[in-house]
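Pasting as-is:
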Amino acid sequence: MEKDEEFIKKLLSIFKVEAAEHISVISSGLFALEKDPPAPEMQKTIEAIYRSAHSLKGASRSVNFLDMETLCQSMEDLLALLRKGELTLTDDIINLLNESNDLLNEIVSTGETGADPELETVIKTLKEGLGKAARGAGSNGSSVKNTERKTNTGSGDGKSETTDKEAAVRSINDRIKSGDVNPVTGKQPAAAAETIRVSAAKLETLLMKAEELVTLKLSARYYSSEIDDIQRLLELRSREWMKTIKDFYRSGGEKGINLPLRDADKERGYADSINYLYNFCETLKTDIENRLNSLKKYIDDDIRSTGGLVDDLLSDMKNILLLPFSYVFEIYPKIVRELSREQGKEIELIIEGSDVEVDKRILQEMKDPFIHLVRNSVDHGIEMPSDRKKSGKPERGTIRLNVMQIDAGSVEIIISDDGAGINRSMVKDAALKQGILTGDESERISDDEVLDLIFESGVSTSPIITTVSGRGLGMAIVKEKAERLGGAVYVKSIPGKMTEFHIILPVAIATFRGILIETCGNQFVVPTRNVEKVEMVYKSEIITVENRATITYKGRAVSLVRLADILELHTPAKDANDAFINVMIIPGGGKFIAFEIDRVINEDEMLLKNLGNQLQRVKNISGATVLASGDVVLILNAADIIKSASRGHFSSAAASSLNIEENSKSRNSKSILVVEDSITARSLYVNILEAAGYNVTSAVDGIDGFTKLINGNFDMVVTDVQMPKMNGFELTGKIRSDARYADIPVILVTGMESTDDKKMGIDSGANAYIVKSGFDQNNLLEIIERFI
């Protein structure tokens, strides 16, 4: 019993901090709305207020603050209409929301859970006002200040009437003082003997100051490197000077040497002057070397001592702010239990790895997203017991939270359920309805890309809007918060079987290992944890599949795009004579994308800096860092550039990145062999290519094609795959195995669309793979022009 009371106190204490943050956001937002900001800023502010009301509603339900929950729901309904533009913001609405927010603050301050008769009248009045406003009836006469209610003030005969809500608050405060109601903070245990009490705000300030010392450590390392360069330069000059002296004596002394000497030098003669200058420079060099050596010794000592102090201080401060995941997971059993009972479901919650520790700031940021995912599993994932029984599943569903330490700098949280999985058709329909997806795109989109759509704002598979879900907002918040922290989110789902959300987060958000790269003369940093590999790729290994440049990595075709195109940087192309390009391979959503870059400079420890309140969310950018040289460099958001690359069309950009030189000869001098067993398709290709100015020869199958290749002189082969006698894969392999034709480009045009088919085409040695269902003659001509 005592343990339960301690847990409740701890839970309420956590809730109070969270609620204060959301109430503060709502208050600041309403204050900003009173100033009548421009439409884009107003919409952004309403969105922030809406999210806080939504999160506060869920949190209040978790600790049984029923009055607060119902009031938040009414606020959320009203804000949803404002957010969609279905209701015009007025002063009356702002006043009503302000009064509601004030009451939320008072409820948190009193610390009472459940329904309180002292506040029910006020809450009922505010709810009615919010409801009328939502229905477009305005809020005239609904203000709390115009509503009479009775409260017992304890004076005279014990009954009197008052017309303001402050009386209720005073009454509750009196009860707190008399001991009838305990405040949220409760009685604090005595401090341990060798401990002191420090506020979290002061600790965070101290941590930020400690983080700044990292820049000093890096600067000292940089200056030490500069001294090394000076020493190497002096050594080089010394060798050059010695060579000059030797050449002088080897050439016969004074012959051929013309030095500007003083009269005294002339009297000594050139040889003596040379000796004098040599001795002088040698002494100067020795003196400089001694001073540099001494200076370097001092700096190296400082680097060791300062570096050790900085690392220890930063490590200790990080450890102070490290908290286990149990800090936020303790409330989840209650959430799952109550929500499953409301919905008539049987659910078991299993939590593993909750002792893994991360930065307190990360836990605070991800607390709401985690709750949303758990509630989603209850509401969307786990089926009703009768439905599970029909599917051959246990009537009781299972939700599992698993935290794993990936390495010293990152953790992975997997929130999974054994429910119905994600209905991809419903997701596509919701995305089409919201205008996020077009009809043509919905036909071509892959299963993995469909799952990614659930992270778009407004996409929801819930048939109705409920207090739990249906607004299509939560998943967007989950992804946004994780990426802002330098993490990533992706989802796996098997229809009728399971859904897994994988959230990868850094252990700390201060320093990280980063790779400094350069593209188009600009330097950027990519967090090391987000990069799979950096390597050189020979241009001969780059092929085109479905009009996109690709390379092979781990046996898979990986799209290749220029990072400069993603970042909209424009500079002249690289030297076409380069035999290779540098690529950076980044994983995301179960796939890889290769980004072409100019070069990798180095990999080092970096200090993360945000871009300030004015630039809270910049596409493709997650922050900035200061290099040891003092230069400020932007940090790339790996998830954003993956998304930009996946959604964009970089065919021409990819072609330019390969620096494929266009042949100056006319098309009439180029001959193409078309191998196709279908007379209709064969005629189509021949007509297209001849109209474009090429000399075209056709063949009816693979054997006919190879025979004509041997007897002719062709610059390219365009072939079908499914043909009698010898298919296109076999023909391509035969061409590649013959040294005479190994360099001839081969383009496969086929109706075989599976990933395995494309892989077979790549393995056979084809340069491009075009699917007939998406055939476009312009794409065909563009690809041909790249190779001949």
